[in-house]
Amino acid sequence: MTSQAPTLVPGLAGIPCAESAVSYIDGQAGILEYRGHRIETLAAQSNFEETAWLLLYGTLPTADELAGFRAKLARYRELPPALLATLAGLPKDGHPMAALQAGYAALGMHMEGKLASRDEDIALLIAATPVMVAAFERARQGQPFVAPDPSLDTAANFLWMLRGETPNVLESHVLDVALVLHADHTMNASTFTARVVASTEADPYTVCASAIGSLKGPLHGGANERVLIQLEKVGTVDRVRAWLDDQLATRGKVMGFGHRVYKTKDPRSFVLQTLARELFEKTGSTPIYDVALELEKAVVEKLGEKGIYPNVDFYSGIVYQKMGIPTDVFTPIFGISRVAGWLAHWREQMVDNKIFRPAQVFVGSHDAVYTDLAARG
Ligand code: CMC
Q1: Of 181, 185, 219, best ligand 1 pocket probe by most atoms within 8 Å of the beta carbon
Q2: For a surface tag, which of 110, 187, 298, 367 has the fewest beta carbons within 10 Å of its beta carbon?
Q3: What class is the 20-217+327-351 domain?
Q4: Single pTM value for the model
Q5: Cα–Cα distance between 248 and 312 in angstroms, integer?
Q6: CA 318, 323, 326 angle in degrees (round to 5)?
Q7: CATH 1.10.580.10 in the chain, residues?
Q8: Among 179, 184, 208, which Cα is nearest to 55's?
Q9: CATH topology classification for 223-322
């Protein structure tokens, strides 16, 4: 009796791979919730630390829990000097995402098994991620490391460590909201990666090192960097439509548009667009924003009926650029936030773990004949 061949679903589109209570998307209605809370509410009223706690532990923290979590994150920003030296010694022309991946692996070598509980590892990983990004950035610019400031929250401290200057309130707020928006997004590629690696019972440092590799790709987190490069290439509003026609004629993707689940505008891109407008009103607009608005209009006219609308990456890069952040640091910022989601999924995966081991559709051959090396053509 021959067994029935499994049917392949490319990209596992629509195939559930886990039960999860962390976040929820309605792709038709454009709804995103973390633990039942709408993303717009969290963006307006919460902050990154509270949101990370919510994702990890399922409920909003009490005032004491939040204060304790913030204090712990501030403490864990103090990284082993040898780790900082490792980051500073990496190739200066390497991508910051590769540095972050190396950083997670090195952090695991320094810390694995040293902390008292899984929750301590989680706090350390969330605290360490922005520190490692800032440390590599300073080193590759030939600037000295800026020690973390325990009085600042994650967003403000990151800007402080990146620049060595106290960030203004608006910039810190904008980055904090961006971190809230990126913290989780159901079973995206990097979260799936995190859960697959978690399912092998690998340590959480390895889980994050693996997930960051997945996030780096241009179809996932790496899109935010490409969006800006694309907008700069288009250059001016009057060139948008001709550029788009060329791009589509060669079947090129327009970065920052389209989504496996959303078939309408990503709710996070509405929030980011509003933030961009706020930032520009207070600090002066940039021509790139007008190019982006025109590109959105043109893409939606041409591809809207296929369900292709702006995703989260379309407006994030414009905001980060305005804040003077280098283009290749955009995706690491995504990682600074998404690490909270990966670790929430890691906790969830470990509750009733079963190692991931999907099937394949075999398309190879059988009965191959082994020929001696000397006899091969
Ligand atoms: N530009 C032009 N055409 C597109 C785009 C786009 N951005 N996205 C999808 N399409 C077309 C695609 O060519 C295909 O057309 P056809 O049916 O004629 O062959 C159809 O729409 C379906 O596209 P797909 O690539 O099969 O859809 P998917 O669900 O596998 O991919 C996606 C989703 C996000 C990878 C894709 O939309 C894409 O590559 N977008 C550009 C990269 C991007 O912005 N990524 C960020 C995603 S959101 C944040 C994150 O996950 O990190």
Answers
A1: 219
A2: 367
A3: mainly alpha
A4: 0.95
A5: 21
A6: 75
A7: 20-217+327-351
A8: 184
A9: Cytochrome p450-Terp; domain 2 (1.10.230)
pLDDT over 70, % of the chain? 99
Strands 37-38 vs 31-34: parallel, antiparallel or unpaired = antiparallel
Q: Whose CA is nearest to atom 47 of ligand 1?
A: 220
Give the Cα separation of 185 and 338 in Å (integer): 9
For 257-277, the pLDDT digits (tens) are 999 999 999 999 999 999 999
Beta strands (DSSP E) in the chain are 23-26, 31-34, 37-38
Mean of pLDDT over the chain: 95
Residue 2 above 80 pLDDT? no
pLDDT 10s digits, 294-334: 999 999 999 999 999 999 999 999 999 999 999 999 999 99
Which one, of 50, 146, 41, 135, lies nearest residue 86 by Cα?
A: 135
- Outline which parts of the chain fall under CATH 1.10.230.10: 223-322
Compute the distance from residue 299 Cα to the ligand 1 centre, in Å. 12
37 carries an active-site annotation: no
Question: How far apart are the CA of 25 and the centre of ligand 1, in A?
Answer: 17
Ligand 1 binding pocket includes 224 (Cβ within 6 Å): no
Q: Hey, is 99 helix, strand or coil?
A: helix
Taking only the tens place, the pLDDT of each residue in 75-134 is: 999 999 999 999 999 999 999 999 999 999 999 999 988 999 999 999 999 999 999 999
238 is an active site residue: no
What is the gyration radius of the CA atoms in the chain, in angstroms?
A: 22
